[in-house]
Amino acid sequence: MKKRGKAMSLVLHPTGNKGAGDPSQAAIALRPDGTFTLIIGTADLGQGSNTILRQFAADALDVPIENISVNNQAGNVAPICTGSFASRVTLIDPHAVVNAADDLKDKVVNWAAGMWEVAPEAVTWADNSVFVEGDEEKTMTMTEVGEGVVGSAELMIGTGAWYPAPFTEHDPETGAMESVGAISFGCAVVEVEVDTETGLIDVLSVIQVWELGKAVNPLTCKQQINGGLSVGLGFALAESCHPYYPDAAHAVEHLTDYYVPTFADYPAEISHGIEEVPHPAGVKGAKGFSEGSSTVPISAIISAVHDATGVWITEVPLTPEVVLKALEA
Amino acid sequence: MENVGYFAPSDVGQALELLAEQGSKATVLAGGTDLVPAINYYSLWPENLIFIGALGLDYIKEEGGKLLIGSGATWTQILEDPLVAEKAPALAQAARQGGSVATRNAGTVGGNLANASPAADLTVILLALEAEVLLKSSAGKRTVALKDFFTGPGETVMNDDELLMEVQIPLPAGSAAFQKLGRRKAMTLSVVNAGVKLNLDGDTCSGACIALGAMAPTPLRCSAAEEMLVGKKLDAALIAECAAAAVAAGSPIDDQRASAWYRTKAGTAIVARALAQAAGIGG
Asked: Are residues A233 and A155 in the same domain?
């Protein structure tokens, strides 16, 4: 028999390890053709950090995004990023990028002021160029700046770093610690169908809504929710190295028997909602969220199975075997 | 994998000669979907590979009241073939649920049988369809019913010098159905699978074949359960009783995919569903 159930779960997802210090660095180099290279140490494992940090750099430099390339692979010289974890990159790295942009702008403005023999305060950086307001002689496109910098034996690299707070210890008396940089708020609503004779769970539809400060790139936010759901489905329903835990018998040795969900296992209906409440700790109010999109469906699935069958299952993954045993108990 | 001999004969005669010469030193390569993982996981160290993909064994045709499928026909061929769809749709149904597109494009029906996995999907429906296999060697040929073909996990009655040439399905192939239970919806080996064939006279069953996979060291025919149906009108109660009897013929084990307990429980449901599907009962 097939039984359907629905449920909702809510999650507070920490973003950034404030208590661990959590530094990031960035550099931006002006190239001879007037374009820029953003140099970061941030690993983009598909979450789109290269995309959004490029957006932040273009915005801070007030230049077209096409004029920014990203290099996050220069491991021997790259600025430090503590890592792509704790949903921290969107909260922390943009500060370093903006600081690097400001530093580069200062350097270029100072150089132009020297060329033109004016005070740096008289030079404006805007519209992909530098100029002295009201003086048509004193204006250079960024391409001219790039060429000129090389010709005057300069190297223009702006650097920036961000260190939200020093490492904090737990309060010895209370154990309290200001551990996270910000919190994002997520919600999942799922509908499942449980096959009570085989224990198989079919996740029919999933809605996820996230309050994430500022959707720096709404498309990649949705893609992150989709990808997170896929991870969450595996976590909730299938992925296990020790199917008879705590017994170590039949430990899984190959991907043949480690069940990552396929597209066929993915729900037919997925919808996303994005809510923006700018967070004071982030650039433009942005904070991370997307790892939470893998956790929030799990408890919703468990609750929906309860709604369908009346049985609470408190271990994951809810493999067909676990489900059938629970239904029999 | 070093110093492996590789032979790609261009006709059956050459292939049979090579098999006769090399005996147990030869490993037959068709689609490679079972063989290559075995090599990659170091469970197989072949001395000589004999590739049989150039022997013209990829035909599907009807002849002499039988559906004849060359052992080199791929899963994709089977699931797309109009003759299979017409004469033995349950076989196409099983082919559709095996592996991935890539493995279905490469893997062959002969390989699925000769590999003799207790969980093989095409195997279990072919067993229910009372298929036979044509084996050839340089010394002669013989036909073996699939129910007598498997002797253990990875083991068959085939001799080292024999090549599996053809699968022969007697027609008409009754009302058949295949059901499979994996750990996800695609790209999954069967935790338990079942193939059934019913001959129906109105709503009375005049003959039944029930085959089960992943429930014993070999794919299994469940004769006691089959006999329960003959001469009877099929209804839900009889199907449930018969499914339990079919599964009782198994001797399942615990492995990475499921426990024996689960296989017995869920296997009963799978057999019942296959029977209901073949009988046209319920949804």
From this structure: no
A8 with A87, same domain: the answer is no
Nearest-angstrom CA–CA distance, B67 and A200: 35
Q: Do A262 and B254 touch (CB under 8 A)?
A: no
Query: Locate tokens 């720096």: which residue?
Result: A216
Give pLDDT tens digits for B10-58: 999 999 999 999 999 999 999 999 999 999 888 888 999 999 999 999 9
Q: Check B183 against A238: CB less than 8 A apart.
A: yes
The reply to whether A130 falls in a domain is yes
**CB distance from A302 to chain B under 8 Å?**
no
A249 close contact with B: CB closer than 8 A: yes
Please tell me the distance in Å from B222's CA to the nearest CA on chain A. Answer: 21
Q: What is the mean pLDDT of the segment spanning B61-75?
A: 98
Beta carbons within 10 angstroms of residue B250's beta carbon: 21
Chain B CB contacts of A320 under 8 Å are 181, 183, 191, 258, 262, 266
Shared domain for A79 and A126, answered yes or no, is yes
- Domains, chain B, with CATH or none: 5-51 (3.30.43.10), 60-170 (3.30.465.10), 175-279 (3.30.390.50)
> Are A32 and A84 part of one and the same domain?
yes
Tell me the average pLDDT across A176-180.
83
Inform me whether the pLDDT recorded for A257 exceeds 70: yes
Checking if the pLDDT of B283 tops 90, the result is: no
Helix ranges (H only) for chain B are: 12-22, 35-40, 75-80, 82-87, 89-96, 101-106, 109-114, 121-128, 223-229, 236-248, 260-279
| pLDDT of the residue at B1 | 57
Q: How many contacts, defined by CB atoms under 8 Å, are there between A and B?
A: 59
Rounded-to-10 torsion of CA A97, A98, A100, A101:
120
pLDDT at A138 over 70: yes
Contact B187 A262 (CB under 8 A): yes
Instruction: Tell whether the model's pLDDT for residue A26 goes beyond 70.
Output: yes
Which of A198, A247, A327 to mutate: most B Cβ within 10 Å? Answer: A198
Grade residue B216 by pLDDT with cuts at 50, 70 and 90.
Answer: very high
- Domains identified in chain A, total number: 2
For A145, the token pair is 């700046």
CATH number for position A118? 3.30.365.10
* Contact across the interface for B41 and A320, Cβ inside 8 Å: no
CA–CA dist B183, A204 (Å, integer): 17
A60 torsion bin: left (phi>0), alpha (psi -120 to 50), beta (else): alpha
Residue A98 lies in a domain: yes
Q: Which of A128, A162, A196 is the last residue of a domain?
A: A162
Do A312 and A251 share a domain, yes or no?
A: yes
**Residue A249 and residue A154 in one domain:** no
Cβ atoms of B136 and B129 within 8 Å: the answer is no
**Tens digits of residue pLDDT in B115-156:** 999 999 999 999 999 999 999 999 999 999 999 999 999 999
User: Pick from A162, A195, A228: which residue ends a domain?
Assistant: A162
